[in-house]
Amino acid sequence: MHIDIYVALAGLIVGCAVGLTGMGGGSLMTPILVLLFGVQPLAAVSSDLVASMIMKPVGAAVHARRRTVNWRLVTLLAAGSVPCAFLGVAFLRLLGRAAMIQTVVQLALGTVLLLCVAAVLARGLVERRRRFTDLAARSRPLRIRPLRTIALGGVIGFVLGITSTGSGTLIIVLLLLLYPQLRGSEMVGTDLTQAVPMVAAAAVAHILFGDFKLGLTLSIVAGSIPGVLIGSLLSSRARTGFIRGVLCFVLLVSGLKLVGASTLAIGIVMAFGLFGVTASPLLRAVLARLGRITLAGTGDASRVLAPPLIQLEGTPLLALSGMPEHEWQAPAGLNSE
Asked: What sign results for the dihedral spanned by CA atoms 285, 289, 295, 301?
């Protein structure tokens, strides 16, 4: 057993990305282990899950202390996810041959990575829609749907047991769709907390039946913990939207590689992705410049080429975001009149 300095460095980078953007570490670290370090897919999944089991309770404890956890939802999700995480590992055992297991894990991991990319994009659209949802609908009491919630936990638990990914990126989008009344902080806190028993169940199952490597796990943890702390400290000053876009591009390419896409297809995706990453800031700058020119020509400084920030038909837009009234704050230099 030894600490691999290169894996620890990769863990540091992934930890920084997680701290900056809140994206799930499993969807980033597992494909790095497989594609860059040549680790067998099952060993990568097993070791990453055990590392996550060590780190997940830290974030959950913070949200529990802040009382941003819906414990009933956590209980229902865990009722489905914990047994199904074991079932996911048992399913791999039933495959028998080692080569078949590695192939299934790799294909499943690639598929889930592609779903994670779609989920990140869907989350942006859903959250944008939530900002403009009728305030009366948003203020209705939360109605728990036990069967749907347990089924949701079961599906994600099974996927996690096979791939080590999905406990954050996938489930938070499904929670957004199932419970739009949840506040943002409560949704994140519930997601982090429900992941603790689910990841623990999958990790224990992989220790017993998987291909757990202690040295690999310690290398991941050694880099990830300081990385998350550094990323969290930098998150308030970094362009997290741009970073999240780059990470989605990396996940997309990794997913295509794992599912066996042709080199030509991956090259085309990379070309479009690089063009989007480089052209997007330039396009935004041009539009902003055109907006300032238009405003200067009209002489009406109140016509801003952006969504209304303070008022929408007499209702404060900040109220539509789900933020409590005592937390509303107008940007410097503006007022609500």
From this structure: positive
Any idea what the Cα angle at residue 107 is, between residues 103 and 108, rounded to 5°? 115
- Predicted model pTM: 0.72
Structure tokens at 81: 């996810």
Largest CA distance in the chain: 73
Establish if 315 belongs to a structural domain.
no
- Number of domains, the chain: 1
| Domain enclosing residue 12, as ranges | 5-240
The answer to whether residue 250 is domain-embedded is: no
- Residue 311 has what DSSP assignment? E
Q: Is 123 exposed, middle or buried (0-12, 13-18, 19+ CB in 10 A)?
A: middle
Counts of helices then strands in the chain (DSSP H, E) = 13, 2
DSSP E strands: which ranges in 163-312? Answer: 311-312
User: What's the CA gap between 237 and 115, in Å, rounded?
Assistant: 29
- List, for residues 298-324, the tens digit of each pLDDT value: 444 444 444 443 333 333 444 333 444
DSSP secondary structure string for all residues of 158-184:
HHHHHHS--TTHHHHHHHHHH-TTS-H
Q: What share of the chain is helix, strand, coil (3-state, %, to 5)?
A: 75, 0, 25
What Cα–Cα distance (Å) separates residue 269 from each residue in 34, 186, 187, 253, 276?
Answer: 20, 36, 32, 7, 10
214-234 helix and 41-66 helix, angle to the nearest 10 degrees = 40
